[in-house]
Amino acid sequence: MKRYCLTLDLKDDLALIAEYEHWHKSENSWPEINKSIKDAGIIFMEIYRVSNRLFMIMATIDAFDFGRKAVADANNPKVQEWEELMWKFQQPLQFAKPGEKWVLMDKIFQLG
Fold it and tell me: What is the pTM of this model?
């Protein structure tokens, strides 16, 4: 199993942040999005927030590949609809590459 941590900023607007959290409650999640995540080999995912900064933890199968996930997402109309909706709330980090949303973080410490 592999673990990845990613980060992204939300627009600094309390109403938009509340709506973003609304869409991420289990009762409001889209089954097609959850399926696409699992189909890509993501076993576990959590998103945390402080202010307008998001932090995502993912555990994946060993064969997980971000490139394959990106291709699958680009060819999935429901994922594209979700991404368009989410972009209403999100903004790229200053150092993100063009078109990059979530930025992969470097692990710098581990206890044990």
Answer: 0.91
